[in-house]
């Protein structure tokens, strides 16, 4: 048997010569794989050390105990930064650990208790994640200050006020800056002062946020969902889910939302919840030492994050399943449900929305929708798909420009400029001045008799009022003014969000996308309402919308438009509909939401297949194998494997004829990341170093043997170092004629890092995950050298 050297660091542009990682391997053409080893004992099943692989027929665990040591070796089997995990190995190790605990549970009461606690630890971890997930309301210091506490926003400040309903926004506890400084809030000077303070506070909040991110936790910027998806697929990004990222992102998220930028907090809250899950994993050995098990926890944490962000526990579970998770077994589904349940219970206990409800935008529409309204709902779906495709292309083009030009060198300046433009444009328009969540809530609202919003300034005829339902009425001057302001707000939101998402501050995309759709939906809803009012005798209205009836609900159109635009950007379907009806309590309106979400996805997919998160994954070059896409090209394994023609000479480690010095020379003189049969370069180095320290007689001239029984040596020879335990004795293999679509499917579904290519049992080469990703990129006419590895 021969162990083969992996690929070298750095790769030539235009070729498939890869950068270093522990799946970047170099092959030996013509080397034969002989795993028979008739004299070997069967491998032992242990918890740590060596690992198992899949070879078409099943899982075979290798010995996990170092040959020169009775205890597992610290560091062996771990992964370096910007490398991918071996899912097969991690799952095999967990099964070995579980079998050992189960077998020992019959020996003593203590072992039985340990078995029970091990089984319960996953549920306890979910409980802790759900309890830690929380949310706070950002202050409204841009517009004024609450005398009861500066940390209260306007809505919270007036909760306990004794003012009447009509003056609910003028409570004495809340003071605008002009009232605080000048003593009054009327006049041109007061307006200019409020304008100036709005811009200054916005700049201060955003400056503090970007400085904290830049100085303490660079990973705290952005949404975090593209990176979470990549991590859940098996990629290692050290520090991305660490304690500093958690602390800084939690603080800067409040600052970024308070600055008035066109961003949301929902995506970053998923990142925050995953940080909590990752940190809590260190309390439990089962999750601390197994990367695959840890990713199951992170999938559940993502569900808890959405549950907290929206008050939508079921939608959170479906979001994790549909959009984020790479591996989602049934057990993870149950635990995600439990974590989302605990998070929702915690949110309900805190009552952050002040309405004693779990949902963010509770609506109460009195009239059912009519079948003919599906036409405008589908139009909103088309708008959402067009907006989603436009936003993705524009935002990716801007982010690529940021990465490839000098613009990326000045993140603080970029944030300040965008904040200043946003604040200057937002203040004159009351619909852009208010927070985006308040805007969406007002757009979703169904006008009642007591509503004082401009959107509800209709010409009232109370003689025709029946019960709580108001009939369709003629729009008054306030409604027309609101329409113009909303149209301007729509234009601003469409363009400013393109430049905001991706800056070096925490920025989510759910709420801005929903705001764009809600504005468009409300505009269309009012237009249809007025059309039905003035032309109720038209054939399309005469059958169901008589004069004086309450037919059209503009708030419903806003809700459907919000779902359509969010679906067009993210390409979510099932989870989106469930989140929307949980978010609003509008269970009766699932069909309109489904129609709009499906239409927006079809339209957006017709223009571009990628959602915003997948597009950012590709932009950043993360090694993510998308399970939703099909590989349809007619290439074979021999077209992708390495080595290729004119490749440099290959480095070989033989099974029983090289000394410690020979192997150390190879390791020090090359930059290979590992070996196809030897697990990795790191394992080899650690094993040799520990053998020198802990095993007597290991010197530079000691022979390294990768089998249990080495050939006889002269009596005067130094001790032999056995390293069989760091080998993968059952590597996954394919033939050189295997279609690449099958190879890609194998890598996706088994989570492999590499597989060997053979011809009639003779080793020809190797295919690594990076080779697959680069080949897919090349087939899609993309830059194959953009794939990120260490």
TrEMBL record:
This is Chloride channel protein. CDD domains: CBS_pair_voltage-gated_CLC_euk_bac, ClC_3_like. Gene3D superfamilies: 3.90.1280.20, Clc chloride channel. One of its GO terms (molecular function) is ATP binding. It comes from the Eukaryota. Pfam families: CBS, Voltage_CLC. Signal peptide: none annotated. Residues 726-786 form the CBS domain. It catalyses: 2 chloride(in) + H(+)(out) = 2 chloride(out) + H(+)(in). The chain crosses the membrane at residues 109-133, 188-213, 246-263, 269-285, 297-321, 371-390, 410-427, 482-503, 509-528. Proton-coupled chloride transporter. Functions as antiport system and exchanges chloride ions against protons. Important for normal acidification of the endosome lumen. May play an important role in renal tubular function. The CLC channel family contains both chloride channels and proton-coupled anion transporters that exchange chloride or another anion for protons. The absence of conserved gating glutamate residues is typical for family members that function as channels. It is found in: Cell membrane; Endosome membrane; Golgi apparatus membrane; Membrane.
